[in-house]
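Title: Comparing notes on inverse folding

I've been comparing how different people in this forum approach sequence design from structure. To keep things fair, I'm posting one structure and asking everyone to reply with a full sequence. Here's the target:
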Protein backbone atom coordinates (compact mmCIF):
# COMPACT_ATOMS: atom_id res chain seq x y z
CA UNK A 1 0.00 0.00 0.00
CA UNK A 2 1.20 3.48 -0.80
CA UNK A 3 1.57 6.26 1.71
CA UNK A 4 -0.85 9.15 1.83
CA UNK A 5 1.83 11.44 0.41
CA UNK A 6 2.30 9.19 -2.64
CA UNK A 7 -1.46 8.89 -3.09
CA UNK A 8 -1.98 12.64 -2.83
CA UNK A 9 0.88 13.34 -5.24
CA UNK A 10 -0.66 10.87 -7.73
CA UNK A 11 -4.09 12.47 -7.30
CA UNK A 12 -2.73 15.95 -7.91
CA UNK A 13 -0.73 14.84 -10.95
CA UNK A 14 -3.91 13.39 -12.45
CA UNK A 15 -5.82 16.56 -11.59
CA UNK A 16 -8.33 14.80 -9.37
CA UNK A 17 -10.38 16.32 -6.54
CA UNK A 18 -10.40 14.63 -3.13
CA UNK A 19 -13.44 12.59 -4.17
CA UNK A 20 -13.59 11.17 -7.68
CA UNK A 21 -15.47 8.49 -9.55
CA UNK A 22 -13.71 5.90 -11.70
CA UNK A 23 -15.02 7.59 -14.84
CA UNK A 24 -13.32 10.84 -13.84
CA UNK A 25 -10.08 9.05 -12.96
CA UNK A 26 -10.01 7.31 -16.36
CA UNK A 27 -10.95 10.48 -18.23
CA UNK A 28 -8.21 12.53 -16.59
CA UNK A 29 -5.67 9.78 -17.24
CA UNK A 30 -6.62 9.53 -20.92
CA UNK A 31 -6.59 13.30 -21.33
CA UNK A 32 -3.12 13.60 -19.82
CA UNK A 33 -1.75 10.67 -21.82
CA UNK A 34 -3.15 12.23 -24.97
CA UNK A 35 -1.30 15.40 -24.09
CA UNK A 36 2.01 13.83 -22.97
CA UNK A 37 2.35 10.61 -24.98
CA UNK A 38 5.73 10.76 -26.76
CA UNK A 39 4.11 9.97 -30.14
CA UNK A 40 1.66 12.86 -29.80
CA UNK A 41 3.65 15.37 -27.79
CA UNK A 42 5.10 18.23 -29.81
CA UNK A 43 7.65 19.14 -27.14
CA UNK A 44 10.94 17.56 -26.13
CA UNK A 45 10.60 13.77 -26.54
CA UNK A 46 12.62 13.09 -23.37
CA UNK A 47 10.37 15.38 -21.33
CA UNK A 48 7.25 13.72 -22.76
CA UNK A 49 8.56 10.23 -21.97
CA UNK A 50 9.32 11.22 -18.37
CA UNK A 51 5.91 12.82 -17.91
CA UNK A 52 4.17 9.79 -19.47
CA UNK A 53 5.94 7.51 -17.00
CA UNK A 54 4.88 9.74 -14.10
CA UNK A 55 1.26 9.75 -15.31
CA UNK A 56 1.22 5.96 -15.72
CA UNK A 57 2.72 5.46 -12.25
CA UNK A 58 0.20 7.87 -10.70
CA UNK A 59 -2.67 6.06 -12.42
CA UNK A 60 -1.39 2.69 -11.19
CA UNK A 61 -1.15 4.02 -7.61
CA UNK A 62 -4.74 5.29 -7.76
CA UNK A 63 -6.02 2.03 -9.31
CA UNK A 64 -4.22 -0.07 -6.69
CA UNK A 65 -5.87 1.98 -3.94
CA UNK A 66 -9.29 1.62 -5.58
CA UNK A 67 -8.80 -2.12 -6.02
CA UNK A 68 -8.03 -2.61 -2.32
CA UNK A 69 -10.74 -0.23 -1.07
CA UNK A 70 -13.45 -1.98 0.90
CA UNK A 71 -16.89 -0.80 -0.07
CA UNK A 72 -19.68 -0.63 2.45
CA UNK A 73 -23.05 -2.04 1.45
CA UNK A 74 -24.74 -1.09 4.69
CA UNK A 75 -28.13 0.57 4.43
CA UNK A 76 -26.70 3.82 5.85
CA UNK A 77 -23.98 4.02 3.18
CA UNK A 78 -26.29 3.08 0.31
CA UNK A 79 -28.86 5.66 1.39
CA UNK A 80 -26.18 8.39 1.36
CA UNK A 81 -26.24 8.05 -2.43
CA UNK A 82 -30.00 7.71 -2.86
CA UNK A 83 -32.02 10.21 -4.84
CA UNK A 84 -34.77 12.27 -3.20
CA UNK A 85 -37.35 10.01 -4.81
CA UNK A 86 -35.66 6.88 -3.47
CA UNK A 87 -35.50 8.39 0.02
CA UNK A 88 -39.18 9.34 -0.18
CA UNK A 89 -40.16 5.84 -1.30
CA UNK A 90 -38.00 4.31 1.43
CA UNK A 91 -39.79 6.35 4.08
CA UNK A 92 -43.37 6.49 2.77
CA UNK A 93 -43.57 4.21 -0.29
CA UNK A 94 -45.92 1.61 1.15
CA UNK A 95 -48.13 4.07 3.04
CA UNK A 96 -51.59 4.20 1.40
CA UNK A 97 -52.21 7.71 2.76
CA UNK A 98 -49.66 9.01 0.17
CA UNK A 99 -51.65 7.65 -2.72
CA UNK A 100 -49.48 4.65 -3.50
CA UNK A 101 -50.81 1.10 -3.36
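Reply #1:
Here's my take.
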Amino acid sequence: MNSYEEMNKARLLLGLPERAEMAEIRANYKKLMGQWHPDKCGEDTQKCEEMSKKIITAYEIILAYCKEYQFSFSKEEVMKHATEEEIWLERFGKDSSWGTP
